[in-house]
Amino acid sequence: MTSASNNNNTAAFLTEAKAHPFAVGPAPVWAPGADEILVKNEAVAVNPVDGNLQYVAFYPLNYPTVLGQDVAGVVVAIGPGVTRFRVGDRVIGHATSMTSGRQQDGGFQLYTILQTNMVCPIPVNMSFETAVVLPLGLSTATAGLFQKSFLNLPLPLVPARQSTGETLLVWGGASSVGSNAIQLAIAAGYEVITTASPHNFDYVKKLGASQVFDYNSPTVHEDLLSAFKSKTLAGVMDCIGAPAWDICVDVALKTSGNKFVATTKRGFPDPPEGVTLQAVFGLTIKDDEMGKAIYEDFLPKALETGSYKPAPEPLVAGHGIESVQAAVDLHRAGVSAQKVIVKL
After folding, report:
1. Checking CA distances to 296, which of 17, 218, 270, 340 falls within 20 to 30 Å?
2. Which residues of the chain have pLDDT under 70?
3. How many domains in the chain?
4. In what residue span(s) does the Enoyl reductase (ER) domain sit (predicted)?
5. Residue 193 C-alpha from the chain's centroid
């Protein structure tokens, strides 16, 4: 193993279920194992799951724990057998403490252990703050679009695949997952129709959506049915949850093609016969071929060529690990077409 120097680590610990605020304190500088790297974080991002894990405690965790899934920083140590990365590389990664149960795998600290198939190098001209918005949204969209148990679309390429002639519906295109789903689908050869608030119409079109509809419009249901009337459906990626389920399922039911709705939320009713509605979990791509396919085979080249844009835009909520709690609370208060981040 190539080792980190003797620096100090600081983490934002969740000491028990529903504890608030995080307890900021010292933590070890971790040693990476096989197929792992240690990253000194320069920026971390906040996702809805972080606030839900803290405030709702919906998922069993080993307390005290370290939350946080989106990190960007510099490789300071590599584990045995790692050849893809070197000390000094600038990277983003999807941190896995939610499922691993290990403190060292959490993002809300100065040093994080990352699994190499969930890490991507970033271009020299791309800031950590810009890049850190990607990982969880990217992983979740990847799971919904490409895993065999979900939409099972062909993988994205650089340059993009030729058109398949099929169309994907992305509900909530300005969200973190939606921003990634639009771009991934286009790179895989699909047209994308999406929904968003009117002030985000230009945003989702710049990401590549061919049509966008206001999800608050009283006519959005009939508008989408009309838009898909002559289309072949590649499937539906719902990035919002309950408000979208009825419409997404009905579009799938009444459109020819793949009648599968992948959703980021749970608790949905049984769909009608002929339609599948299933919840995605982004971290599952670390355990199948999708992690490597996206973080190693697709994303590095896509970022380098500029064909893939880190999105949404970062909203800097503060500096230092001490600012993580304020960032989580800011995110829970609501943001639109932005990703709350903390610079370290």
Report:
1. 340
2. 1-6
3. 2
4. 25-342
5. 20
